[in-house]
User: Fold this.
Amino acid sequence: MSTKLLGKLALMCGASLIAATAAHAQDPAASAPVDVTTADGQTSEREIIVTGTQIQGAKINDVLPVTVVDEVDIQNIAASSGDELFRAIPQAGAVAFNEQNDVTSNNARGDVASINLRDLGTGNTLLLINGRRMVLNPGFQTELLVPVVSPDTNEIAPGSVRRLEVLRDGASAIYGADAVAGVVNTVLRGNRKGGFIEGEWRASDGTSLYSTQINGGYGFDFADGRANLTIYGGYFYENGLPASERAYSRDDDKRPLLVGTPFENDTQFNNRNTFGPFGQFDIQITNNNLTPIRDDDFYIQPSTFTGCRFDLGNGLCARNGDNPAAEVRYNRAFGTTLISEKKRYNAALLFNYEFSDNIEGYFEGTFYRSESSRNITPAAILSAVPVGISRNAYWNPFGPVTFPGGAANPNRRPGTTIPTGGADLIMERYRFVDSGNRTVDVDKDSYRLVAGLKGNFGAWDFDTGFVYSEAKSTDLEGNRVSLTLLQQAINRSTPDAYNPFNGGCIDNVGNGDCTPNPQSSIDPFLIDVFRKGKTTLALADFKVSNNALFGLPGGDVGIAAGVEWRRETFIDDRDPRIDGTITWRDSVTGVFDGSDVVGTSASPDTSGSREVYSAFVETFVPLVSEDMDIPLITALNLQLAGRMEHFKDIGETAIVPRAAASWTVVPGLMVRGAWSQGFRAPNLVQVNDEGTTRSNTRDDFVRCQAQVERGQLANLGLCPGEGVISFRSGTDQLQPEDSESINLGIVLEPKFIPGLTLTADYWRVKQTGLVGTFGDDNAIALDLLLRLNGSFNPAVIRSAPTAEQIALYTGTRLQPAGDIIRVEDPYLNLDSRVSKGWDFGLAYNVPDFGAGDFRLRFNAARLDSFVQSAGADGQELLDAVASGQLPPEVRIEGLGQLLEIEGRPKWRFSGAVNWGSGPVDVALFASYVGKVWNTSVTRDVPIVSTDPNANFFRIDDMLTINTSVSYTVDNDTALDGLRLRFGINNLFNEDPPLADDTYGFLSQLHSPRGRVFRVEVRKPF
Assistant:
């Protein structure tokens, strides 16, 4: 932060505090409370608090771009979870944490969802409950190769929400870290008088999926009306949906769904996996002519398939090569779950007590529990961690003539000249289908306690409170495989050994295993693997405000100031077979790996804590009012704010200002704007990760460049991928990411159309110093560039070159290089990003014209641009490709214009029409998500276009419509107030658009629930 900026902020804060001190003796009337009508027709007296300001009662609403989702909107959305509720906000971007993201235990799995305003990335949105932070979800996952964290929006039960306030602007100066994209404040229902109970049943059309839930609440005043206690509780159950019940999710081969499109028969949509029950192996021999395979690499397939070179018996044969043909590949969707079976429990208690006319105590207690269960694809080995099979293994087809001890080997296949002592094998591809689908059970508990005092002393309002919140989760994955126990089971020289050579289903190759091993051979190596997480948040704050500090000709000046302390912790406890406690050393090859679990890289236990100290000041200055009668300036208001936040663990202090203004040109026409700086501190995982290994399939550009120069490859685009170990690590030397936000808007409330409000806002956010990794693929590309210039990249650690490799590099421009051992890929402050777009809003409460009450709402978000720029090393690679130093086949991913790439559509909108007359209410709600490009699929025959994305697969847009009709009994009987509602979500049964993704659609954007019928009964008392 520059000295000049520090000086400006100090001057602003100092002037505001001096003004506050000078006016402290004044005692203007406190802002008047307003009457608010609840969904049950009750009236509670409370003061409206608008997210974006800490000044109680300040008339600042129009200065800020705030979207309010009220109880009518919540009923229109008809969400069964917090995730569905938040997804309906058009400014909410891709939901990275979702239940379909289940493939690896390194993801945040279970009944969980994240928040991502503006698509600026998970972790850039601050989520509040009644104005204070939520605890983070105890699980995290990687996004753009770095670990990201988020609160779990599913912890917020829609039935307990009075409204959502969405500040669509950077607000770090008001609320602190993480408010880069904006703030979402959830206001809970409190001060209830009376009770209610409601039940709902839902069913997805054409499937077995259904859900039931029951909610209730009760509140009452006591102590002569000075106190209120309100309690809520709810239970939700959903039975789950198998992937087989949807055409797009039942098979990894999506080609039948593309008939009649430009991508018909495109093999890129055949995602059946090379790891299946038909394994691929490497014979440890130096002379490939010792077997009819004529290759040390072979894979198993049915004998009826072409390419057989060696009969293995039982209808199986061996085919040469290390890349199984498409016909042999496995459908990973077989037996999996699309929507989890789940249970949710939630409870809330809200209490407030007026000690006097000036002081009120309050308490909030909430509890949430979720339980989810699903099946995912059977375990498979990692390409970077093959498994050695001993020559003496009972089922080894190239084993010895006789086992040690003299017993004849019945399984050695005839027709080879392999020595009588047999040959070891390496199992390079295999999926343990006969062990069954893996099961994933995730249980999570979260609670939150808030206690505080608020009130006033003279003209000053104050609020002080303490928050403690904790979340715990256990991810238990069954039917996992221990490498140590597996190798022992395979290498037995007795018939009870595990047989990986028996193939799968000959007549239906990609689905299941028709020749499973006996369960007695499987059980010895099956294990359960856990991942336990815990996060805590402790927060104490003290805030004062005065909405009438002193008067100006334009109105009363308001001020707020406060201090906050918070402590955050996290624990990520991995299973001993993953965290390095129990490791694996291959008994055949001697290779070591830090993980003893098939298919999972080593991940150490990680934990960390952080203390943060902060202070803020905010002023609201009305410069001009209508009474001043200034032409073309009916009103002019200004908001100034600044915040300092110190992070003890990384030793960094962030100081950020904010300025916002609104100018009412004439009555009904207002222009507003805001400029602010913001920051996001590196999360605790990024700081404390001691080193995580990940196995990825990457191209060794150095070796392949030598092959190109030797004429063995046509170009680098044909470079065959291989398993590469990437080592990622955190550091306390990371700095906060900085941001700068600009928001400019217009608000139109034409007097000739009473009740109508139109808004349009332009926004721009620039982020610098983004925490990321350079990427192992980019590091390998940089290694090639440096080696072409006589150097090398020390982050790419290689073994000494073998004689064969030395021969390969002879005569090329490159010095001999060995195999990649691993790539060092630490978290760094790297790239920058500029995003910009528009928001549009319409709210119209139609004046009564005798046909009932009409209400219209429309909210749209337009993403104009999302450009990520490279850091120094990344730019060096881009320049090298542009100059021809590197061939064009070297692609630097994740940079440039990323608009409409994967999860960033140009357009999202929602709209609603409500009509009510007497006991009947009718609602219509529409939600739209625009098109995006699927970059993992390109046209077989490229087209010429000025659009650089034109050859990618286009994921279609999606429009869903919800409708409902309700009837409320209004009489003097016991049924008085009973409400019956029938609704249909996704009225036209739209499927999510097809995508080249795990379950055939982008789960971060779309839902697979289809048309949902719902019936609700509610009775107040």
